[in-house]
Amino acid sequence: MKKFLLLVIAVVLVAFFFLQKKGNNIEKKTPIVPTRITKQKITQVISSSKSIFVPYWTMKGGLSDLNQYDNLFYFGLNGGSEGIDKNDPGLQKISDFMDKTPLNKAKFLTIKISEWDENRQKIISDAVDIAKQYKFSGVVLDLELNSLFSDQVKNQITDFVQLFSATLKKENMKLYVALYGDTFYRKRPYDVLPIAKSADQILIMAYDFHKVGGEPGPNFPFTDSQKYGYDFQTMVDDFQKFVPQDKLAVIFGLYGYDWMVDEKKRPIKPAKALTLDEIRPKFLEKCQWQDCLVKRDNKSKETEVDYVVSNVVDNYGYLDYHVVWFEDEESVNVKIDYLKTKGIGNIAYWAWGYF
Predict the structure, then answer these.
(1) For 174-204, how does the pLDDT look when each residue is reduced to its tens digit (9 = 90+)?
(2) Are 297 and 218 in contact (CB under 8 A)?
(3) Is there a contact between 123 and 163 (Cβ–Cβ < 8 Å)?
């Protein structure tokens, strides 16, 4: 009887351990949770404006159709070591600009700085006096410094902007600051964060990425940074790291360049600037040149024109190869649509009389 009980206990224990092991090997099924599909977030545009630069040299034929713009930027005066040059031809045309443009528009005086020196206060005082005299709403400070500068000069530029802004605010005027679109790519001497804090708006010059003296290419490619090293979308991302979206405005240049090149499209001499109004009849309506090829690039969104000019010099025939790149309304509209997805609604155009 004792042996029988021991046998029963052994069988029960074996059965218990077998069932426990089997239970541990049963696959535990995790409930399937549906994947949530979310739409791409589009940032809301909270500030929207349309502006245009009006160069004094394009005012010969009069001023019209400016009612579509919110801000008119008069271009402009040069700031140098002696302040504002009193013989600057732009100074002579300000009265015409103020008299012939709509009264209900905000008008800004553009001051271009292309050289840097210590005499900054004179530029500010002259600019503010002229802006007050002609009743401008403010000043566009166009910083176009091309050379490499030390950190000391970089700090001086920041101080200059801050002083300019404070002086204008005392007169109830605004300060807009225009910076190159390639500011971050080419490491321009601008500390964007403190400049943006002092300015009422930062204007990005989204043109001239390919220079007059450089290789042919788009005015500012929309995409394809792998090919060009940089592009419009990257530019917007870079500026948005330091400038609020409602403080940003993008300037589009409706013009292009014509480079004379060799067989490998390497520039032979500096390019010639062409306005969009000059480009249309010359290449788009009917291209009169030999082997003329007009094509819109899918990535940059801008248009390239390749053509050949035949020349005879001293009874010898020569072929001059040309490449033209330009921005137009179609490429601009693509870029504007992209800006809206980034919450940027302020745009401007360079320039009146060019398109």
Answers:
(1) 999 999 999 999 989 999 999 999 999 999 9
(2) yes
(3) no
Angle between helices 151-170 and 120-133 (to 10 degrees): 30
Q: Residue type for 291, please?
A: D
10: tokens are 């052994």
Q: Which domain holds residue 182?
A: 48-254+327-350
15, two tokens: 């059965």
Alpha carbons within 13 A on the beta-carbon side of 59: 22
> Is this structure's pTM higher than 0.85?
yes
Distance CA 218, CA 241 (A): 25
Establish how many alpha carbons lie within 13 A of residue 195's alpha carbon, considering only the half-sphere containing its beta carbon: 26
Q: Using N-to-C axis directions, what is the helix angle for 232-240 and 329-341, rounded to 10°?
A: 40
Residue 115 backbone phi and psi in degrees, to 5: -135, 155
Evaluate whether residue 316 is within a structural domain. Answer: no
CA 143 to the chain's CA centroid: 14
Asked if the structure places residue 138 within a domain, the reply is yes
Q: Which residues, in sequence order, are CB contacts of 139 under 8 Å at separation 6+?
A: 108, 109, 110, 111, 127, 128, 131, 164, 168, 173, 174, 175, 176
Q: Spell out the SS3 assignment of 244-279.
A: CHHHEEEEEECEEEEEEECCCCCECCCCEEEEHHHH
Residue type, 346: N
Q: How many domains, the chain? A: 1
CA nearest 326: which of 271, 288, 246? Answer: 271
Expressed in angstroms, the distance from the first to the final Cα of the chain is: 113
For 17-51, the pLDDT digits (tens) are 433 443 444 333 333 333 333 344 567 999 999 99
In-domain check, residue 74: yes
